[in-house]
Design a protein that fits this description.
The chain is an alpha/beta fold. Helix content is 39%, strand content 14%. It is globular. Bound molecules: zinc ion (2 copies). One zinc ion binds next to helix 2.
């Protein structure tokens, strides 16, 4: 089955299942919708006024953190949704590993006020890609789903085929810092680079931990002359 047909089939199957079984909250499993109000209230949002403008680390004030001064991230500014913990972590798991695209969309829509501010800053949106193999297994790329919602909010196009992931990598969350850098090195390449020449690009990912993936993607795009890079992640590790 060609991949797009299988994605359509999975979507149809999902909506059929949703009509038979009531939708459960991605955070706590309670019936009634993609995210229940208790979970939404419990999610810790990252406040731009009290965090590092590049990596989102909590600082008490808006100020570039020591790590971002010492070690260039590759992008000039970052926007982060929630701290990755408790029910938010469950919701992201439901989204990424259990096909709950509705949960991913709902989470991103909760951030619409934060996202709106990007409309005057960026020209186009590039999701952090997954490999062909992973796309076939999972049926979708979580970063692409987030990018679609951002695109609806800021009315800027998503370019999902410019940044390509050719190398399968190990799950970054299971590795230490050095291993993460090694694991992701050389994982990305650019196709049709002329489409992004001179543009201000927003790179989108579901989760930011050490920043190794965001950095590798940024430097891959920078090699093609893209300097105005911004980054968005739905969630960020606490540390
Ligand atoms: Zn809930
Ligand atoms: Zn920082």
């Amino acid at each position: 089955m060609p991949p797009n047909i299988s994605i359509i089939f999975k979507d149809a199957l999902q909506s059929l299942l949703n009509s038979v079984y009531p939708v459960k909250c991605g955070g706590c499993g309670k019936s009634g919708g993609a995210l229940c109000n208790d979970c939404i209230d419990s999610f810790q949002r990252i406040d731009e006024n009290t965090s590092c403008p590049i990596c989102g680390r909590g600082m008490g004030i808006r100020s570039v953190c020591g790590e971002c001064i010492k070690d260039e991230r590759g992008f000039i500014e970052g926007r982060y949704g929630f701290f990755y913990e408790k029910n938010l972590r469950e919701a992201i798991h439901a989204f990424k590993f259990h096909g709950r695209k509705d949960v991913g969309r709902a989470l991103t829509n909760l951030l619409s006020e934060k996202i709106k501010g990007l409309s005057s800053t960026v020209d186009l949106i590039i999701p952090i890609p997954v490999t062909e193999k992973r796309l076939k297994e999972r049926g979708f790329n979580p970063s692409f789903i987030i990018s679609q919602v951002i695109s609806e909010i800021i009315k800027k196009p998503v370019l999902p085929t410019v940044l390509i992931k050719g190398k399968e990598t190990l799950d970054q969350s299971r590795l230490d810092r050095e291993e993460r850098l090694r694991n992701i090195k050389g994982a990305f390449s650019v196709k049709d680079g002329e489409r992004i020449k001179g543009k201000r690009v927003l790179i989108v990912d579901d989760l930011f931990t050490t920043g190794a993936t965001a950095r590798e993607a940024s430097y891959t795009l920078k090699k093609r002359g893209i300097d105005r890079l911004y980054f968005f992640a739905l969630a960020r590790a606490m540390t």
